[in-house]
Amino acid sequence: MNASVLDITRLRKSFGGLTVIDDVSFSVTRGSRTALIGPNGAGKTTVFNLLTGVYPIDDGRIVLDGQDITTVPANDRVTYGMSRSFQNIRLMPHLSTVENVMLGQHARARSLPSLLFPLGLTPRNKWAREAADALADAGLGTYPGQVVANLPYGVQKRIEVVRAMVSRPKILLLDEPAAGLNQVETAQLQALLERVSASGTTLLVVEHDMHFVRNLCDHVVVLNFGRKIFEGTPAQVNDDPAVREAYLGSDSSMGAAHAS
Amino acid sequence: MASFIDSALTWIGSSKAGQCFADLDGKLDLLPQQTANGLMLGGVYVMVAVAFTLIIGMLNFLNFTVPALFMVGAVMMWASISGGFGSGADQVMAAIVGPGNQWILGIVVALVVVSLCSLVIERFTYRYMKARYGDATEHALPLVSSLGFLIIFEHVVITIWGSDSLTATSPFGNSSFYIASIQFSTPQVISLLVSLGFVFALSYMLRATRLGRALRSIAEKPDTAPLMGVEVGRIVPIVYVLAGLLCGIAGILFTLNYTTVDAYVGDTVATVAIAGMVIGGLGNVWGAVIGGLIVAMLQIYATHFCGAGVVKIPVWGLLLLILIFKPTGLFGHSAIGKGKF
Amino acid sequence: MSGYLESQLIILCLNVIFAYGIFLPAASGQLNLGAAGFITLGAYSSAWLNASMGGLGLPMFFSIPLAMLFCAFVAFVISFPILRTRGVYMVLATFAFAEVVSGFVINLDFLGGAAGMPVDDHANINVVLPVALGVVLFSFYFMATRLGLTFRSIHDDESVATLFGVNVRSAKVAAFTIGAALTSLGGALYGHHYNYIETQTFNVLLSIYILLYVLLGGTQTAWGPLVGAAFFTAIPELLRQVSKETGEQWIADTRFIFFGAIIVLMMVVRPEGLVTRTMVERLSRRDKGDPPAKTPAAGEVSS
């Protein structure tokens, strides 16, 4: 078994004439909690979109747990052991909480018998039970039947994590999980992510809140203008001159990062 | 199975497809005249297609009240010149503009009614949804409401005047003139010129006036237009009334030229106009003009060569092919119609 | 059962079958304004397979399933180009498809052409009603499967569904094809019940009405098309009965104006359709006696 679960090599992507990801390489160690940070527009979410196959890459290689997934179509990548949450909540507004989580199981239930199994007519089937248990484990047991559109923001954020987890990923990509959450909700989310990590899933987190990153992560990759400018521990990141230069004057989030 | 193949072969060989090439020389001789007829028919489609394209270009939804407004315009004109409002109203109208000249008031009545209808429709299809849901194109709401209005208007007309054909006598008779042995009907030529005149005026208005700039900014950036000082709430009713007026004028010209209308006349004309709009490219005014003329030509030529029975195939077949292979049409751009519905 | 009630029930059954045929694609976010095309295909292909003169002379119970298979095949083939289109373009493409079908059929002399075609076997209420019930049950089962769940996910957010492993294109093709098979089943039954078909009956107005049943009933649950079709088949009839009972002729004359007004008002009051997911959830929770879910406190929702 490799030490790293995800290896990104010389990733490159341009839109039109604009190069948004330029020669980015890094590896994510198995079981680590890696943060991907950088000023606004640095290309963090683009990296996620390239990893999950939302856009094809122009050049480079993506290896997930020893398997090259560079050319695997977007809807198959989840079966290789990678799933994600989204910057703006992307739960299905007309599905109930449990149904949203059951969508996360799709990668493990793509055979015809599984597709034709009547989930909704037999409430205590194994898929529904598993989804309800996963929600209960995450402290969301009171919400199973409710349509998600009416739930509080913090709860929806955690449901997104649960939905991604039931696909049983080796690596979980989280795009600004703490954005828009209050302190209580952030603490709840962090507790959930600690448990996910303790269960052996590797975390790769895009996040603006440096406080959150320091509390959660053990490794940091910094992007600026589509290039990697730093890689190291959270403790080192503030002392690095390149990182300081990238943030100073260019983005308000550094102020927030220092204040916290 | 054999009978199926037999029938298919018979069909291709003689009865239908074969008849397209029968007496080809005679048909080709008549081609210039048919082309002129196609242009005249196109004049009707052009304005309706422009009305469709205006709303889909500005507000991004397919407005099914366009056929209703066209029909209302046509029926109002019919009622004005044929005493459809009752003999009392007819006498009053005759007293104002003189007997035989009721068509002048007919234009006014038709345009006023169509404008009022447009405002009511705007209130329920667009404004309400925008106010309540932020995005008026969500849930196919305006599409459904506009279909509801189509049913309402058609049945109001049926309730008052019945569902049979309503025939008027044209106040202009059937005067015509010849250019190089091609016969042109005078009212039809005037209609075509009026249509093109309105399209020119509209296109000038969009390009050169403040209102036009406001309209275009809504079409291009509906989210930021309010920030730039465009009062969307006041502009959208104007778009509706403009589209309504185009339909109304088209309906008026239709009645004056073809003299026979009924409650469903809008469906027949507007569905072909939709095809014209798509062929020209959604949201493009001159595209709708060209597209409207193309479908009219297709209809006339198909009827001329192969008979009235096959008209649907070339028009809708072309529409289907365009939608699949070049959905932006001849002049459209890709941003329009990409909403959920 | 009185003849009147039976004839109304038949119309209701056919409308329900049509509605489910359009509902399946609508549940996955595709607006299909081409119902008339598949109804035409189903009615004519079953009529021809069944016809003893000039056709194959198969009994109705073979000709109808074969007609469905044929239509499913046609739908499968055309779904690939049609599903390249989206939004308004798809509405127009399905509509154009229906017109092309009608344009071809009216020119095929062995199908009677413009004069229409008589249909041999008769399907009475004892056939139509069980089939309609079967379609309803099938649709409820189907929407409860994982495949149904993926349809609803695609309706809400295609790209997220893709990232969780859903093959969006295949699911859409499946929805379109199965929906077309159901629509054509309704068309075949229509032909066998009335024993006469002509393309003019299956016009754009029919497609519009069927799409309206579905959108007004609601596309989120399998209840939608049933409620929508029932509601809108019943309203004009009820108004006619009211007119008969009260002797007020104007009610019968203006009933379709009311009908249109109800459609417009419905979009104001219940824009997501008569039956929504939330409504079904609330009703079923009341049945089980579960406590209502905690509602978020004010200010807690920041989205």
What does this structure look like?
The complex is a heterotrimer of chains A (260), B (341) and C (303). Helix content of chain A is 35%, strand content 24%. By secondary structure, chain A is an alpha/beta fold. Chain A has two domains: 1-81 and 170-260, P-loop containing nucleotide triphosphate hydrolases (Rossmann fold), CATH 3.40.50; 92-168, no CATH class. In chain A, the strands form two sheets. Chain A has a six-stranded mixed beta sheet, with helices on both faces. Chain A has a four-stranded antiparallel beta sheet with strand order 2-1-4-5, covered by helices on one side. The termini of chain A are far apart. Chain B has 341 residues and is mainly alpha-helical. Chain B has a domain at 31-163 and 184-273. Chain B is built from 13 helices and four strands. In chain B, the strands form two sheets. A two-stranded antiparallel sheet of chain B has the order 1-4. In chain B, strands 2-3 form a two-stranded antiparallel sheet. In chain B, helix 3 (31-59) packs parallel to helix 8 (186-208), helix 6 runs antiparallel to helix 10 (232-258) and helix 11 packs across helix 12 (285-306). Chain B is globular, with a radius of gyration of 21 Å. Residues 337-341 of chain B have low confidence and may be disordered. Chain C is an all-alpha fold and 303 residues long. Chain C has a domain at 3-202: ABC transporter involved in vitamin B12 uptake, BtuC (Orthogonal Bundle). Chain C has a two-stranded antiparallel sheet. The radius of gyration of chain C is 21 Å and the shape is globular. The model of chain C is unreliable at 289-303 (pLDDT under 50). The chains are: A alpha/beta (260), B mainly alpha (341), C mainly alpha (303). Chains B and C meet through helix 1, helix 6, helix 7, helix 11 and helix 13 of B and helix 4, helix 9 and helix 12 of C.
Structural key phrases:
heterotrimer, A: about 260 residues, alpha/beta, Rossmann fold, 2 domains, 6-stranded mixed β-sheet, 4-stranded antiparallel β-sheet, 10 strands, B: about 350 residues, mainly alpha, two-stranded antiparallel sheet, two-stranded antiparallel ribbon, about 70% helix
